[in-house]
Amino acid sequence: MKLIPVRNIHSSIKEPDTSGEFIIWDLCELLSGRDMVQDLHRHGFYFLLIIENGTGEHTIDFISYPFVARSIYLMRPGQVHKLTLNSNCKGYLLQFTDEFCLSYDITTKQTLKKICQRSYYQTEPEAFERISSLMTAILREISEKKYRYEYAIQINVQLLFVELLRQVHSLTDVTDGRKSYQSERLEEFKALIADHVSDHKQIFWYAERMNLTTYQLNTLSKRALGKSGSELITEYILLEAKRYLLGTTNQVSQISLHLGYEDISYFIRFFKKHTGYSPEAFRNNFK
């Protein structure tokens, strides 16, 4: 069983001069007048692309986002993407690992989780100007390497997280304790699905792990996303199947077993029921 290619931060684009846990590039310098095209792959780190202007396309977990001015594209570890950056792109590229965030307090870590719920942000001019100023400050810190410059970088990254959080949360959203609780429990549910879905596909197992009833977990999911917990489990299974169908040359039988389906015929029927394609047809039509 071949795994989807995973790019780690040390083996991707060579970093300018940091600890290896954080990388920032000015896109004009990175591209140097050339287009950049990356085929489908998976990352073991956070990937944050900030586009001031330019043309290209970013596909994250099979959703395509054509570039528009003042847009931001955020990937968390484990997601798959493919990317076309045309030579006229201006902006910044950030890459950082979970280890980079270890020193952050719990509030900052929760903020990162919240902003990772979205892959695409469209900002207003004023907000983008503030974000661009933060990127300029980080590049200056790396270039000058003054006392505690690593700490200064982390502070600026924290401010970036806050700017992104402001794009999707009004003041009442942020201060609403009930909504905050729902969001945190939902992220816990999603993380459990990602870790255990190959062995556990029934919602009652996840509810038990979260000390909730099945009714409570379904209610939580429906209030937040308009979908039942079982629908979220199904969506993740289909997403992971698509990742492997398009990101590897594995046989359908191997992917089926990897996802916990020993009955390959059942997996094929399950996939076709929800996508309209057999796994092989999906691979042939979308690769």
TrEMBL record:
InterPro entries: AraC-bd (IPR003313), Homeodomain-like_sf (IPR009057), HTH-like (IPR037923), HTH_AraC (IPR018060), Tscrpt_reg_AraC-type_HTH (IPR020449)
Domain HTH araC/xylS-type: 187-285
Pfam families: AraC_binding (PF02311), HTH_18 (PF12833)
Keyword vocabulary terms for this entry: DNA-binding, Transcription, Transcription regulation
Molecular function terms from GO: DNA-binding transcription factor activity; sequence-specific DNA binding
Name of the protein: AraC family transcriptional regulator
Native source organism of the sequence: Pararcticibacter amylolyticus
